[in-house]
Design the sequence.
């Protein structure tokens, strides 16, 4: 890619607790990319806000763009928000499994950082039917909003919390 | 074919009266897919500039773009500069080449040159043989349109045949009518098939177009965020993936809406077959040679007039993914007649 060198992107996904991101440092020449986190966009907004306060300008991408970055060899590291982890895997915000599979395929390191704890496994379907308060899907559309997913230990080496 | 989606053929030339039997086109109308499903509005296109605009602004996309490209040649030989007399073939050919050039450069990922090259080539051959190139353009375009329509309808049946009773199919973006029409045929054949559609940010083709036309086809469809595909596959809520492709390479690699690569990788990881609707092409040898359009990041960062993530962020919006052929289980190809 013209503007991004190989292995120059550090990817952030999920709703991190504020303390997790405080420790993040971005070396010179690296770029912070943040997945937006549909349907609420809360994860994208909060992560962007914390990074900005640290003097890092994040680049937002939609949740379907991470694959492109991996395919192009641009991703150096993935930071995933994790609510719980043990020796069999980790409970992460939805979207983490995509990144974990991609990271393993493309031999990219994953770091698990503590997430804000939430106790919902399914979100209200109505949130996927709208975007920023505007109805997008036609009337009568059924939505499905899984909030968390299990990422098996085979997708990452060790846990860093 | 009892159900035909409006998205299957989103360009119309019949919204204005013309002389009976006339094959000339002075204006054509393009369904504004950015407004679907809330409004069914057709945009009049009267020249190549208007055609390029509807393509660039994604008022139409995928197959609709090729209809725009083809109908633009009919427009331009009808409405072109008045000096296109039959003896003025040099200027006519120059004009056709200029039209082709503008269309080819409207969106870099799409192989419009493969189509415009056929039309311009037919005109050049006619001119070399002393035949009015406009006749050749008219015949070529109308023949191509009739042929592609028949072939797409044939492919709809093949897609329906690939659907089995009990299937739960994940799809991404929108495949311009064919999936919904296939769903209708599958239902008529007594197959119970469910669909999951990704919303397909940032343009939401999945949320707006695919859910709408699957509903029109009376199919069962559930909308999910783009980030939910891992959950769907890991939890075995889907057993098949069907997506379209915007471009194919000679080795079977394809380019399709952004998000397609991660879907393909996850499908392979979870042993879920990936079926891709393709149009064979030898224009490029492999996906590595396909230019990927980078769109304005504001299309991702701004919704309505609101900056979704504030003012201090950047955005990045590649329009397409390349999916290597090794990840594709089955390609249902269309012979586009090129």
Sequence:
């Amino acid at each position: 890619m013209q503007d991004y060198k190989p292995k120059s992107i550090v990817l952030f996904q999920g709703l991190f607790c504020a303390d997790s991101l405080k420790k993040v440092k971005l070396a010179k020449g690296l770029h912070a990319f943040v997945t937006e986190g549909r349907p609420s966009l809360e994860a994208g907004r909060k992560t962007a806000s914390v990074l900005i306060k640290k003097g890092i300008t994040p680049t937002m991408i939609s949740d379907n763009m991470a694959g492109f970055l991996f395919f192009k060899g641009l991703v150096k590291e993935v930071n995933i928000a994790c609510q719980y982890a043990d020796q069999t895997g980790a409970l992460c915000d939805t979207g983490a499994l995509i990144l974990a599979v991609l990271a393993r395929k493309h031999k990219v390191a994953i770091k698990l950082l503590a997430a804000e704890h939430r106790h919902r496994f399914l979100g209200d379907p109505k949130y996927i039917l709208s975007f920023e308060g505007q109805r997008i899907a036609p009337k009568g559309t059924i939505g499905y909003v899984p909030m968390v997913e299990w990422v098996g230990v085979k997708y990452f080496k060790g846990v860093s919390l | 074919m009892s159900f035909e989606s409006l998205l299957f053929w989103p360009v119309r030339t019949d919204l204005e009266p013309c002389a009976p039997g006339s094959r000339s086109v002075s204006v054509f109308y393009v369904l504004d897919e950015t407004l679907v499903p809330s409004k069914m509005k057709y945009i009049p296109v009267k020249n190549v500039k208007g055609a390029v605009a509807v393509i660039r602004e994604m008022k139409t996309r995928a197959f609709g773009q090729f209809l725009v490209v083809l109908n633009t040649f009919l427009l331009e030989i009808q409405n072109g500069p008045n000096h296109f007399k039959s003896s003025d073939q040099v200027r006519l050919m120059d004009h056709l080449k200029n039209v082709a050039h503008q269309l080819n450069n409207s969106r870099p990922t799409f192989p419009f040159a493969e189509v415009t090259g056929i039309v311009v080539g037919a005109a050049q051959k006619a001119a070399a043989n002393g035949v009015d190139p406009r006749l050749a353009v008219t015949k070529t375009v109308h023949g191509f349109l009739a042929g592609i329509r028949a072939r797409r309808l044939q492919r709809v049946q093949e897609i329906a045949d690939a659907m089995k009773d009990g299937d739960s199919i994940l799809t991404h973006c929108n495949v311009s009518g064919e999936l919904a029409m296939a769903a209708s045929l599958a239902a008529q054949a007594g197959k119970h098939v469910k669909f999951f559609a990704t919303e397909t940010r940032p343009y939401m083709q999945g949320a707006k177009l695919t859910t709408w036309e699957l509903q029109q086809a009376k199919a069962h469809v559930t909308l999910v965020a783009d980030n939910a595909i891992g959950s769907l596959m890991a939890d075995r809520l889907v057993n098949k993936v069907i997506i379209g492709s915007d471009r194919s390479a000679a080795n079977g690699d394809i380019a399709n809406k952004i998000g397609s690569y991660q879907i393909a990788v996850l499908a392979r990881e979870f042993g879920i077959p990936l079926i891709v609707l393709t149009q064979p092409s030898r224009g490029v040898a492999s996906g590595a040679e396909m230019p990927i359009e980078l769109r304005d990041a504001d299309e991702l960062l701004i919704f309505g007039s609101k900056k979704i993530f504030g003012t201090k962020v950047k955005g990045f919006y590649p329009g397409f993914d390349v999916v290597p052929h090794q990840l594709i289980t089955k390609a249902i190809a269309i012979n586009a007649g090129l």
